[in-house]
């Protein structure tokens, strides 16, 4: 018997925003499907957490850079679990600051492949299904690099700038068909052990302390905003918003 | 005995966004103070509605273009009802499309006085109090004219463009003090009898029908988003977002 | 006998951008009319410089904040010198950084009066004349504060944000009538003794030295860009551009 | 004996903007190197035109989507003709409006390869050389799709949005080293037989007539603006500007 719950799918389900949004949707009555590239044990923990709280969840390891990986996942989930009502694309492509001479073609292409092409592939596989059902939402986590390029951000900014324009293009085609696309600019450091935590390593605790209380974005708080976006009535949809800690300088301000 | 509930103040409390947000905050446990320029009976109805639903509310007629009106209101509310925890500036200054030659100096100045200077006055009276308390939020309803000027919008666009930059400036000073300023771009027609309804008169119903089901922004839906914004934890604040019906073309797209 | 040269009018003709643009237009065959608020000797020097180089110029002291001052100037120039083919609005309203509590209502209103209302008045007096002639251009010097608000910039950002949206609104109405409106974001310090020089006083030389060679915007270079804009063929008009020294960080970047 | 003229290189040298800019730089004293993908006869005509006018020019057929093509061209030109002082990246990736279901992965990737990766490759090959010489400029022709996505523009908008953020990122790294990067948003139809002309075929003349006199962007006019940008003194550089005919509605306006 197929699952009767609406399905929520997240690509990029680490212990930060991805995992917390999955948890929030499961708590709200969705079957959450969590997909990530590696760390089977970490993925298992996230799924078990949700189940232990009485929610429904599935996990899937998947390399989004490989052909057919995203397409097959969408197909599998829709067939074996149920129609995907809401999805979150949560893969980033931050590789730290690198001078142009140190930005290889391979790194530049990989940035595009993960940050621009992968959401296009997810959209291609998923949005026509949602459009046919007349309802659905696609949330896209994005970054400051989507709205301004900075020194050393050649790969990241190009990939994220493409992502943002893609989201506007998808929204223009699919909003009138009842499918809500939202582009969220995360404009500050996220308290996320799987991404920023790994980048900073042993320095993560010191960095966190330096930001002060509530000085890093709490992914659980972000999850509430994502939940809100995905449930705005269709007469009042938001396409783009920014999120940062109260202590952080917005990208447009002097530092 | 002073009121123990947190206080929510709205300037521009008609039967559209202003009234619905007041209702939402009252339902959420705030004492809602509704201020508007005219129509005592309409104001009374809004306040009674809230009270009938078990909420707390007060009403006040007030001409925001007059000296001291906003300042005295803030002072009065803080003294007689309690500290204002959250406020909504909801006055617009749309006067319809007018060619430059038909845009009088008086109309241009009034646009500024209501749409740029009035929120500055509210901020001047209120934000330092909130900063001293280390918490609070100011929501500002804005319009597409804040992000692009159009033919015939000389007065409105200049006033709203000023409003948006003011909000960024206020945010830069007050966010680090724990005060959340949010600027909301309403990029579509609101199903609001007191504003758009009055502008269109007898044509309102026909216009509404032409937009189709959910083709006009439901102010009750907007109220949920405002409530969400005002209650984002300080580690994850949004400064700017847009709202429109799913059927409406965003301002940046071709029509 | 009326002057046969096309007329160029600048409001805000100090020794920085305003004076240099006047000089450039005079060199290019215009009769330059230079208007500024004070410093008759300084104005005289600018006019004499132009005349000594074989150009035509007139000077006028004028307080743009006073009623009818701008309107009368346009009327006078058009009647006594000739049709204004191109104009530059070059008045700023930077008052330095001030906390909200230190930003008086008077300062906020004066910012609007000089930076938003004054260009609206110039446009109202001038653009319909240009539209009737089917040709003309209005250049508007603007500032970073027109595109982002910063802490302490409450008055300046609100005024400049209004200016930018006004320019877009004017462009939308008047471009199809053959009148070119351009909004130029000066995003760096100008080597201008009359404005930045006066603000910094004795520290100006030290500041300039600290910026290094070519580290401050040369107003003569800006004048070439303004000249170029005013003479773009109507099939290829620019509405907005930014200008800064090569050493300066653009406003959208981290510092 | 090596050529003593400064060298100007254009990728995408058709009979529109690319060819006219090459002509303008040759007239201004540069040796112009024109590279394009196909139409050897057309390329020959452009080169001969320049030579017949007394200018210096070379032509090169080159498929920018192939590995090493751009890199080898830069290397060849620098060795056999001289240091490239200024370059224009003028390749577009407009494929017309296509629904998401009709936008193949191949088309999406090709858009990126030509419109985002190719300018990155040019920058990688060229900007470090310019930085070492402490001077140079890279002009990048861009499109409205770089600043907003539209329905059917999934491939184009993603590619151009990436291009714009790349340019900001390059500017942030290279401006302080004396290399000027400019991103020009062409926001209207160009009177270009090789691109728009080919897209419209027999309808080109009717389309052109429908736009009225000066209703299409004259590439010769654009060439003057590009020339101006490439020769702004380094104290007053422009990073981004827009160009459209006076009759055309800017992208941010209602149509």
TrEMBL record, chains A, B, C, D:
Signal peptide: none annotated. Gene3D superfamilies: NAD(P)-binding Rossmann-like Domain. Pfam families: adh_short. Coiled coil: none annotated. InterPro entries: NAD(P)-bd_dom_sf, SDR_fam. This is SDR family NAD(P)-dependent oxidoreductase. It comes from Pontixanthobacter luteolus.
């Amino acid at each position: 018997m197929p699952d009767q719950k609406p399905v929520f799918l997240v690509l990029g389900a680490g212990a930060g925003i991805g995992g917390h949004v999955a948890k929030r949707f499961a708590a709200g009555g969705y079957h959450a499907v969590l997909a990530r590239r590696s760390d089977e044990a970490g993925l298992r923990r996230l799924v078990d957490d949700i189940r232990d709280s009485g929610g429904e969840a599935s996990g899937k390891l998947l390399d989004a850079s490989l052909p057919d990986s995203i397409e097959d996942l969408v197909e599998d989930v829709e067939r074996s679990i149920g129609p995907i009502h809401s999805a979150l694309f949560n893969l980033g492509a931050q590789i730290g600051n690198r001078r142009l001479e140190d930005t290889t073609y391979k790194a530049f292409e990989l940035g595009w492949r993960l940050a621009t092409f992968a959401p296009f592939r997810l959209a291609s596989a998923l949005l026509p299904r949602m459009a046919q059902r007349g309802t659905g939402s696609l949330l896209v986590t994005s970054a400051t690099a989507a709205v301004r390029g900075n020194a050393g951000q050649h790969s990241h900014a190009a990939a994220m700038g493409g992502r943002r324009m893609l989201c506007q293009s998808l929204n223009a085609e699919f909003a009138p068909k009842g499918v809500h696309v939202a582009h969220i600019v995360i404009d500050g450091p996220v308290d996320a052990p799987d991404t920023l935590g790994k980048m900073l390593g042993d320095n993560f605790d010191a960095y966190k302390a330096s930001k002060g209380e509530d000085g890093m974005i709490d992914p659980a708080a972000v999850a509430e905003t994502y939940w809100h976006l995905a449930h705005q009535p269709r007469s009042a949809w938001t396409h783009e918003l920014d999120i940062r800690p109260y202590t952080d300088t917005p990208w447009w301000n002097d530092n």
